[in-house]
């Protein structure tokens, strides 16, 4: 993926999160400063006038049948969603909720210990640090008013996905390469009609939300170098983890309700019946994985030079903003999602604590000196070894 264009400015230039460099907007909020946004409050933001609104009756009645608290995957079972128009309306509405991508930096090492009263050794994995930064705020040019480059599309004919099938496949007649004059891909309205008219006893329509236009490989390499520069010697993983990525609509059938009920799931796990039920459900369920809500981090510029334009900030600017906070969190061996407080702390001079008590101030200074000395020794001699 390309580097930021000259129009986007250098990585060191201060950039507002509600205006794309070199770009102007036609709405009334162009020159207003967006207030500080809490990453946990995205669901509570007011809807913009551009965001589609459901009829009040549907907004209040169609609730998720189940939601996975770990992944944010949401499941719906409601007979009204088996009507094409209502399904299309809801899909369009759900597409305007962003995915929640997290950049995660995890360091581990193996530790061998001897069991008490036994001659056998036990090897366990120790997590040295588990640091994450949420990327969702950088998918908006103005997070307060939900201004973004989001778009809802259907899959192309040449993409291998489940099209009301069990296995992934391309559209009938689609060639391996792009053909001039090929048949147009079905619209969302047409896919909704196909789903509702499908005769399968078990079927599912999936909406996938994804971040696009993010040069993960470059950021991954820079973060790995950042951690290795602290002389960390353990196993290091840098990856993207996305929550709220998938919405699944199942037809109203008893088996579908059972498969999504927690106590039934646990019953099948504990009795090992999932060994038989999983293949049955997998073979019987016809899946429509044809709707994608794209949330661009960047996109190709319209100048035709191969440059990229960014909805808020570039990868370099993101790294310059968060690099120091990530490094501090790694050295402190934290396991947390970093927030605005960590960002401010990393870029502010270290405050001097004065309690008014000479004994207390001396103790605090002694602890800080000890932590600083330990970090310096780690950088010189290395840390995170397998042992």
Please describe the topology of this protein:
Blueprint: H1 56-61, E1 66-67, E2 74-77, H2 84-94, E3 100-114, E4 121-134, E5 140-142, E6 147-148, E7 151-154, E8 163-165, H3 188-197, E9 202-212, H4 216-228, E10 235-243, E11 246-250, H5 254-259, H6 262-270, H7 274-284, E12 285-296, E13 298-300, E14 308-310, H8 315-331, E15 335-338, H9 340-347, H10 358-381
Parallel strand pairs: 2-11, 4-15, 9-12
Antiparallel strand pairs: 1-2, 3-4, 3-10, 5-6, 7-12, 8-12, 9-11, 13-14
Helix pairs in contact: 2-3, 4-8, 8-9
Region (Disordered): 1-42
Keywords: Membrane, Transmembrane, Transmembrane helix
Biased composition (Polar residues): 17-27
Structure classification? alpha+beta
Overall pLDDT confidence: 80
Helix content: 25-40%
Gap between N and C termini, in Å?
A: 39 Å
What's the story with the biggest beta sheet?
A: 7 strands, mixed
- Count of helical segments? 10
Unreliable segments of 5+ consecutive residues: 1-50, 351-356, 363-371
How much strand? 15-25%
Radius of gyration: 25 Å
Secondary-structure element order, N to C? HEEHEEEEEEHEHEEHHHEEEHEHH
Transmembrane segments: 263-283
Keywords: Membrane, Transmembrane, Transmembrane helix
Biased composition (Polar residues): 17-27
Region (Disordered): 1-42
